[in-house]
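Supplementary Methods. Inverse-folding protocol.

Structures were first reduced to a discrete structure-token string of length 166. This string, shown here, constituted the complete conditioning input.
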């Protein structure tokens, strides 16, 4: 039996290999939440097992660093059953990974499953393009879209937390 959600503000970002988009989203949310003084559990994972234990792609590390965010210490992992109870929100970076998450979700999982851009007005369901086969510009473009989504999610989490306290 699971004890329910470990952290009501917990967010798990998920992409395919957990070396590009989801580590950037994890770093971006962690940094923004810290700046705003908002306590939340943030992590990332992949639906595939290709890169377990690997650091993020050097291009992702470089783009994040240019924006003042250090993601070099992260290690890729695959989403696991406990994540569906540990995190309040499991956020996919594209539709294929959302479907992969849904197919793994236990029936009694407590996490809310959604896509990153679902929190952005007029952009629900929009994917974050995978920059893995692209150049630096592709990683920079992914970073920009991720930050729009992360900003919207943090605003949503802060509003939800405030309404719970009211």
């Amino acid at each position: 039996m699971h004890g329910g959600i470990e952290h009501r503000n917990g967010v798990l970002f998920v992409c395919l290999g957990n070396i590009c988009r989801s580590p950037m989203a994890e770093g971006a949310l962690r940094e923004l939440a810290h700046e705003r003084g908002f306590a939340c559990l943030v992590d990332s994972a992949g639906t595939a097992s290709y890169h377990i234990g690997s650091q993020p792609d050097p291009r992702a590390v470089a783009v994040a660093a240019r924006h003042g965010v250090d993601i070099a210490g992260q290690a890729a992992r695959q989403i696991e059953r406990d994540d569906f109870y540990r995190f309040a929100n499991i956020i996919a970076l594209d539709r294929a990974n959302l479907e992969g998450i849904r197919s793994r979700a236990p029936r009694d999982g407590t996490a809310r499953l959604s896509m990153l851009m679902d929190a952005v007005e007029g952009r629900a369901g929009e994917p974050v393009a995978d920059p893995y086969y692209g150049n630096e510009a592709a990683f920079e473009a992914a970073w920009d879209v991720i930050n729009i989504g992360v900003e919207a999610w943090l605003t949503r989490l802060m509003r939800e937390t405030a309404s719970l306290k009211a």
